[in-house]
Amino acid sequence: MNVGAFVCSCGGTCDVDLEAVRDGVRDVEVVASSELLCRDALPAVDGLIDEYDLDQLVVGACDDGCKAKFDDLVESKGLHPEAAAFVDHRERAGWVHERDDATDKTARLINARRTGLEHEAGERTVEREAGEHVLVVGDAESAAALADSAEVTLLADGAEYADAEADLSDVTVERGRLVAVEGRFGEFEVQVEARVTEDCISCMKCVQEGPDGMITRRPVDIHPDAPDGEWTECCPTDAIDLSGVTRTVDADQVIDPAGTSTARGGRIGYYTGPVDAGTVAAVESLLGGVTKPKYLDLEMDVCAAGESGQQGCTACVDACPHEAVERPAVDEVAFDLAACKNCGACTSSCPTGAVSLREPSNERIAREVEALLSRETDDGGIWPFTGGDGGIETPVVAFTCDERAAAALDEYGRRAAAGEDIAYPPVLPVEVNCTDTVGEGHVMHALAAGAAGVAIVGCGGDCLHSGPDPKAELVERLNRATSDLGLGERVAFFAPDPDDPGAFAEELSQFTELTLDPNPVPEGEHRSTGVVRADKPNPEYNSHDWTLESVRRIVEFTDPERDAIRGLKDFGVMSVSDACNLTPTCSTLCPTDAIRRTDDGDLQFAHEDCVNCGLCEEGCPETAITMDRGLDLSRLPENRTAGEGAAAGDDPRWETVHEGEMLKCVRCGTPFTSAASAEHIESEVGDLVSGVAPDSEHSVFEYCGDCRAALLFDNR
C-alpha cells in the first residue's frame, strides 16, 4: 500500500505548524501540506498520486465539501472508492488547543490513522431471511398504514374494531389479549389468550345475550372479568371458554405500543412505545429480511460458558444491552448476529477471545494507540520540537465513542472557531463504536505503551447502548488495579455535553493536570503481541492475554504495592480444601487447561492461564474448590522457580494446590485413580459389591478397570 499524507490549515484558521507536522508524519511515501488543500493545492495532489503511485490517501480535512472533493479525485484516478481516509485535526486539535499541542497532536493523528488502515477488516455481511407478516397489537391506524406493503394481523387486545375509522379491509383482525412475545426477528412467537375458541363463527348470539360491555363484536371476544352464567350456553358451536384459551401466533415483526423491552433500544423487529412514521418505515425496511454488516467474529471453541451441564462464564450474556446474546442451554451461548448493534460490550467482557469485534479490532486499536504515543521520526529522531521540549506534555489516550461523544467534541471545535473561549487538554483520541468496546485489556495496554492516563469519553448522561454511567464500574476496578501496580489512579470517564463545554474542559484539565503524574513506563516503546504464549488456542488480543502482557510490561518499571492485584476480573486464584478426592471433573471442565492432575496424584493449577470462569468451582462434586478474582504476581511463572510447589523440574507455570496419592492396580501396577476417590467410592457402594470376587485377597476397588473385569470374569 503506497500512502500519501496531506494536511491543511483551512485557510490559516487551523493553528498548526504545517512544516512541523510534515516532519512528524512517518511511514508514508509522501507528505504535503497547504493552507487550502481542497482548492489551489488539489491539482498538486493529483500529480503526487501519479508520481508516487499512491493507492491510499490520509487527509487532514474535516469539512464535508473538502471530503467530497477528495472523494471525487479518488474516483477520477480510478482508486478504491474509500481510498481517502480523513483525520479530524481541525475541530479536535487546531481549533481547541495551543499551537504546539495542536501541531503535535495532528501529526500523531495522521500516523495513527495511517497505522489503523493496515489493520482494517474486510467487509462481511450477515443475512437473516424473514417473511412479511407483521403483528400489530391494538393499534388499528398502524395496522392500516402497513397493510399496503405487508401482511398485517391486528391483535385486538380486548378492543372493539367494528366501528374503527381506520381502513382494516386488508388487515386480519385476531381476538385475544397479548400474554408474551418470544423469539426473534423473523421467528417471533406471540402468546395470545382469549375466552372464545377458534370454533367461533361470529354469529353474535353471545353479543346479544351476554353481559353488557363485556363482549366485543369485531373480533368476537369476551372480557376476562365476564361472569359465568346461562348465557354461555347460547353459542351454537360451544366456542365460549371462560377459563381462557391460549394459542401462539407466528410473526416476522411485532408492533406492541404498550410493551416493554429489556433490550436497550429495543430488539430488531420488535417495536414498543409510541408508533410514528419512523416506526412504519423501519418495519417496511425489514420486510423480507435484512442484510447488514457482520460486526462480530466468533471462536466458540475457546468459549468458557460451560460444559457437561455446568454453567461457567456469563460475561457476554450479562453485558449485552440488546439481547443479542442468550443461553439456549445452561452450558451454551448463542449470538444473534442480526440483532447485534456493534457496541462491543460482549467483546470487552469476554476473557478468552471467543467473541471479538471485527472493526475496529483490538489489534487495530492497539496499533493506533502505539502510533499515537510514538514521536519517533523516520530517521529515528524525536519530533516536532528540538529536544522534545514542546508539544503534548501529558499524553492521555482518550477512547472516544464515535456517536454522541464525538459529535459533542466536534461542536466544541466549531464553537471555538466561531469565537467562544473553548479549550481543553490535547488528549489523543482513539474512536470506538461505543465506550462499551473498552475493557481492561484496552486500558492496561495504553498504560503499558506509556500513556500517562486513559480517558474514556462517552455519551453524555445516558449511553445509547448501556444507559447512564456506563463505565463507572470499569473505572473503579481499573483504578484499584493501577494503584496496586504502583501507578496510582490513571483512569477516568467523561461525558461531554454539547451545551456545556466548560464543564468537560474543567474536568479533563483536573484529570490531566492534577491527578496524573508522569508514567514511569516509557512512552511509545511498546509493541504488543496480544498473546501470552504462542501455543495457546485463543485468538490474539483476547482480554486475558492482552491484559497480562500489558501488566508484565508495566511492572518492569514500577514497584507494585502488593502481589495480589485487585480489580482485574479476567484472572482467578484457585484454593482446594482437603475434601478433594482428585476426581477429574475440574481438569475436564476447565476451558483453558489451567488445571491438571499429575501421575503422582497431585492437583496442579496454572494461574497464568485461568480466566476465572468458575466452571471448576461449579462442577466440583466435593465442593472442594474456591476461586478468588484477581491477578497474583507471585504466582506467575516468571516469579516462581521450576518445581516450586510442584514436581521437581516441572514447568514453573504449574503449582500444586492439592497433594494426593495415586492408587496402583494390585495386579498390573498401573496407577488408575486417586486413593481418596477409591476410598470414597468404596464407602458409598462397597456393601453392594461385597463377595463378587471371594477368591481375591484384595478389594475389587484395588484393581484397575481392565484387571477388575478380568477378576470378575475369573470369578463368574
Describe the 3D structure.
With 716 residues, the chain is an alpha/beta fold. Among the domains are: 1-118, Rossmann fold (3-Layer(aba) Sandwich); 133-288, no CATH class; 291-357, 2-Layer Sandwich (Alpha-Beta Plaits), CATH 3.30.70.20; 571-658, Alpha-Beta Plaits (2-Layer Sandwich), CATH 3.30.70; 662-714, no CATH class. The protein is built from 20 helices and 35 strands. The protein has a five-stranded parallel β-sheet with strand order 8-7-6-14-15, covered by helices on one side. The longest helix is centred in the first third of the chain and has 19 residues, at 99-117. The termini are far apart. The model has no long low-confidence stretch (mean pLDDT 91).
